[in-house]
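Try this one yourself first.
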C-alpha cells in the first residue's frame, strides 16, 4: 500500500510484529459497515461517481458474504482488517477500489470500527446484566421472608432475609448497567472523516456518515478523534467494576456451597466433579467468575498503561488497544451468563440458613434495642447488659431466647417476659422495616420496584 516510497520490503519480524489481522479481523462487520457509509457519502457529495460508488458497495457486500461464509483470511502482509478488505476489493472490482480510501485514513477508520464494536459490547453487557437481574429479583421475591445470618467481618451479625441479600446484588448490578449506558452515551460521536489527524480537504459530509452508522454527531476535533480510546477505557472500567461485583457474588456462592456453610446447592449444570474424589461437586463456574474478574481488571490496566504516555495523534501502540477489550468482553459476557444461571437454578437450604442465624446470637442487637425502647436504658449501657446475656448463653450453650427469664433478670431486673418477642429471628427482621431495611415487607416493596424497572409488570 505504501511501496512507492520504499526500496525494500519489511523483514519477517516487521511483518509479524506489525500484523493486527489475527485479532482485528473481529472488526470485519464494522469495517465493511463504515466503508459502505463512507462510499455512500462520497457519492452523495460528488467526490466519487454514483457508478463507482455502486461498484464499490457491491464489492463490499460480496466480501461480507465471503467472510460470513468462510471467515476472514489472515495474511500478515496485509497487516490489518482494513487493508485485508481493501485488497480483496481490488481483486474483485479492480482499480476503482482505490477510490474508497479518498478522504479517510486507517486512523479514523480504526477509531470508527472499534467504537462500533465497543458500542455493541456495551449493549451485550447491559443485556447480560438484565438477565442476571431478572434471576436475582425472581429469587428475592421467592425468599423475601427466608431468614439467614447477615455478616460483618464474616461473623454472624444480625439476621437478614435472603431476599434482602439478593437484592443487594440487584442494586450493585443496577449501577453497573448504568455505567455501560453512560459509556454508550459518551461514545456516541463518529470519528470517521477525521482522516489521518487533521481532517480533509475534500467536501465530505460527516453528519451523513455519523447518522448512517447510528451516531448522534461527528466528533468535533480530528486530532482527538484519532487519538482517543476513552470509549474503550470506559468499557473496560465499567467491565472491571461489574466483574468485581460478580466476583463478590461468586465468592459468596462458593462459601455458601461449602459443606460447613451448606446454605446452597449449585446446579449440576454449572458445577464439575472430581476425577479422584467421588463425593465432590465443585463450584468451578463461580470460581472462574472470580478468576475472570482479575483478568478483566488486568485488561483495563493494560490499556490505561498503553495510552498514558502517547503524544497526539495516532501511534502504533494504539493497535494494542483491541486484544484487552476483546478479551475482557468475552470474559464478562460469560461471567454474567454463569452468574445468571447459578442464581436462577441454585437450591437454597433455608432451614440451614435459619439455623445459622439462630445459632450466632444474631438477635443480640434486638435485645439491646429492646432495653433502650422498653426500659429507657441508654444504648451503651444496654449494649453492656446484652453482652453479659450473650456470655451467659454461650457458657450454657443456649440461644438467647432459650435463657430462662430469672437468669436474664439476674443480669438486669428491668427485663421482663415481653423481651422474648424481640429475640426471635423473625421478630428481628420484621422490626427492621426502615426504608431500605431487611424486613420482608420492605424487601417486597423493593422487589416490586425492581420488577417495574425491568419491565416485568
Ligand atoms: N492496524 C492499525 C490499528 O489497529 C490501523 C491503523 C493504522 N494506522 C497507521 N497509521 N499505521 O491501530
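Now uncover the answer:
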Amino acid at each position: 500500500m505504501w511501496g512507492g516510497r520504499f526500496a525494500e520490503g519489511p523483514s519477517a519480524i516487521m511483518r509479524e510484529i506489525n500484523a493486527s489481522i489475527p485479532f482485528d479481523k473481529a472488526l470485519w462487520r464494522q469495517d465493511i459497515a463504515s466503508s459502505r457509509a463512507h462510499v455512500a457519502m462520497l457519492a452523495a457529495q460528488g467526490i466519487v461517481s454514483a457508478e463507482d460508488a455502486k461498484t464499490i458497495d457491491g464489492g463490499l457486500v460480496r466480501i461480507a458474504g465471503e467472510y460470513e461464509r468462510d471467515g476472514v483470511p489472515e495474511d500478515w502482509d496485509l497487516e490489518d482488517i482494513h487493508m485485508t478488505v481493501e485488497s480483496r476489493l481490488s481483486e474483485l472490482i479492480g482499480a476503482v477500489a482505490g477510490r474508497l480510501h479518498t478522504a479517510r485514513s486507517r486512523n479514523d477508520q480504526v477509531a470508527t470500527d472499534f467504537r462500533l464494536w465497543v458500542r455493541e459490547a456495551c449493549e451485550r453487557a447491559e443485556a447480560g446484566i438484565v438477565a442476571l437481574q431478572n434471576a436475582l429479583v425472581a429469587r428475592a421475591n421467592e425468599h423475601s421472608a427466608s431468614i439467614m445470618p447477615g455478616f460483618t467481618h464474616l461473623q454472624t451479625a444480625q439476621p437478614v432475609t435472603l431476599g434482602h441479600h439478593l437484592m443487594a446484588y440487584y442494586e450493585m448490578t443496577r449501577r453497573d448497567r448504568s455505567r455501560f449506558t453512560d459509556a454508550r452515551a459518551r461514545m456516541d460521536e463518529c470519528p470517521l472523516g477525521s482522516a489521518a489527524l487533521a481532517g480533509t480537504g475534500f467536501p465530505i459530509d460527516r453528519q451523513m456518515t455519523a447518522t448512517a452508522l447510528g451516531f448522534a454527531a461527528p466528533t468535533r476535533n480530528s486530532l482527538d478523534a484519532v487519538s482517543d480510546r476513552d470509549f474503550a477505557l470506559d468499557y473496560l472500567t465499567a467491565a472491571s467494576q461489574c466483574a468485581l461485583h460478580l466476583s463478590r457474588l461468586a465468592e459468596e456462592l462458593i462459601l455458601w456451597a461449602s459443606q460447613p456453610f451448606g446454605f446452597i446447592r449449585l446446579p449440576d449444570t454449572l458445577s464439575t466433579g472430581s476425577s479422584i474424589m467421588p463425593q465432590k461437586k465443585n463450584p468451578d463456574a463461580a470460581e472462574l467468575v472470580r478468576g475472570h474478574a482479575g483478568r478483566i481488571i488486568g485488561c483495563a490496566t493494560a490499556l490505561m498503561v498503553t495510552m498514558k504516555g502517547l503524544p497526539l495523534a495516532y501511534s502504533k501502540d494504539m493497535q494494542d488497544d483491541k486484544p484487552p477489550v476483546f478479551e475482557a468482553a468475552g470474559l464478562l459476557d460469560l461471567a454474567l451468563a454463569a452468574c445468571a444461571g447459578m442464581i436462577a437454578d441454585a437450591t437454597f437450604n433455608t432451614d440451614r440458613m435459619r439455623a445459622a442465624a439462630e445459632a450466632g446470637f444474631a438477635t443480640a442487637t434486638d435485645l439491646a434495642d429492646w432495653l433502650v425502647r422498653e426500659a429507657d436504658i441508654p444504648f451503651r449501657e444496654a449494649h453492656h447488659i446484652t453482652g453479659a446475656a450473650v456470655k451467659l448463653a454461650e457458657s450454657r450453650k443456649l440461644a438467647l431466647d432459650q435463657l430462662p427469664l430469672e437468669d436474664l433478670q439476674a443480669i438486669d431486673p428491668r427485663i421482663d417476659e415481653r423481651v422474648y418477642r424481640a429475640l426471635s429471628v423473625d421478630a428481628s427482621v420484621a422490626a427492621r422495616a426502615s426504608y431500605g431495611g431487611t424486613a420482608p415487607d420492605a424487601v417486597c416493596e423493593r422487589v416490586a420496584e425492581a420488577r417495574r424497572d425491568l419491565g416485568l409488570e
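Discussion: The longest strand covers residues 155-161. The CA atoms of residues 136 and 436 lie 17 Å apart.
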